[in-house]
Design a protein that fits this description.
This protein is an alpha/beta fold and 283 residues long. The chain has one domain (9-280): Dihydropteroate synthase-like (TIM Barrel). 43% of the residues lie in helices and 15% in strands. The strands form 2 sheets. It has an 8-stranded parallel sheet with strand order 8-7-6-5-4-3-10-9. Strand 1 (9-12) and strand 2 (15-18) form a beta hairpin. Helix 3 packs parallel to helix 4 (107-115). It starts with 8 loop residues before the first strand and ends with a helix. The structure holds ligand 8Y4. Residues 65, 69, 103, 122, 124, 144, 146, 192, 194-195, 222, 224, 227-228, 239, 262 line the site of ligand 8Y4.
């Protein structure tokens, strides 16, 4: 992988994201279990209020996702996914003026989200679904390509690698090449090793330790470890007690030069980023 992209600005449709320092991406799940108990409009409003809080806490971008990647989660149709995601994307853009990333692998959702003003596509399947490469090529938005071994239903059953860092790099390079073949420029690509997606604790820790090397791949990096089981396993903590572990990893990612942190706990993560920035700016 050649290190040619030194540009620190990501063109997100009509918006620009300055990646010269670490940016915080707030997670907004619009799966039925998240905000749906009062019906469709109540769900939309609850999601909006949550996003508003994350923006006030300093989130630079909101990642909206309507498909659960939990093992055993029911597969949803493109129509159902669009019905969940589209109203929220539209309201975030129009009512809150937010920079929105859409967590989707579905070409139709990518196209409609772009039309509604989304600024980025976040695809845990790295544009491997039929039509996804062409959709991103057409809409012209940046895309986050994430590594996953296997599929969400079975990925945690027996993840196996020779050298996990090399294999993740090889996969991402192949996806960059696939993007190039349809005209998606390198300047539009963000890379993500995909913590927790077909990885044991040991694999996740090795990947995390290798973040400084991944910087030499020459593209912006996104890291999502917020509340994940790698923290639970390392510290023996249930999901509601993983904040400190997540902030430790966030700090390490910032120091490794990671450009985007995908997190639930925006206010706390923004404090970590700002504190480290204050130290970095000292004489
Ligand atoms: C507790 C909290 C338990 C969170 C599990 C989880 C990533 C991602 C996800 C990521 C990118 C998740 C959509 C999984 N993780 N996108 N999406 N990178 N780019 N699980 O690491 O948060 S969903």
């Amino acid at each position: 992988m050649t290190a040619s992209n030194k540009s620190s600005r990501l063109l997100c449709g009509s918006r620009e994201l300055d990646l010269s320092c670490t940016r915080v991406m707030g997670i907004l799940n619009v799966t039925p279990d998240s905000f749906s108990d009062g019906g469709r409009f109540a769900a939309r409003d609850a999601a909006l209020r949550h996003a508003e809080g994350m923006l006030q806490a300093g989130a630079d971008i909101i990642d909206v996702g309507g498909e659960s990647t939990r093992p055993g989660a029911r597969a949803i149709s493109p129509v159902e996914e669009l019905e969940r995601v589209a109203p929220v994307v539209e309201a975030l853009v129009r009512e809150l003026g937010a920079l929105v990333s859409v967590d989707t692998s579905t070409p139709g959702v990518m196209r409609e989200a772009a039309r509604l003003g989304a600024g980025m596509i976040n695809d845990v399947r790295a544009l491997q679904r039929e039509g996804a490469l062409d959709a991103v090529a057409d809409i012209g938005l940046p895309v986050c390509l994430m590594h996953m071994q296997g599929d969400p239903d079975t990925m945690q059953q027996a993840p196996t690698y020779g050298n996990v860092v090399q294999e993740v790099q090889g996969f991402l390079q192949a996806r960059i090449d696939a993007c190039a073949a349809v005209g998606i420029d390198r300047a539009r690509i963000v890379l993500d090793p995909g913590f927790g997606f077909g990885k044991t604790l040991a694999h996740n820790l090795s990947l995390f330790k290798a973040l400084p090397e991944m910087k030499s791949w020459g593209l912006p990096l996104l890291v999502g470890v917020s509340r994940k089981s790698m923290i639970g396993q390392a510290l023996n903590r249930p999901v509601e007690q993983r904040l400190a572990g997540g902030l430790a990893l966030a700090a390490q990612a910032v120091l490794a030069g990671v450009q985007l942190l995908r997190v639930h706990d925006v206010a706390e993560t923004v404090d970590v980023v700002r504190m480290l920035s204050a130290v970095a700016g000292a004489e």
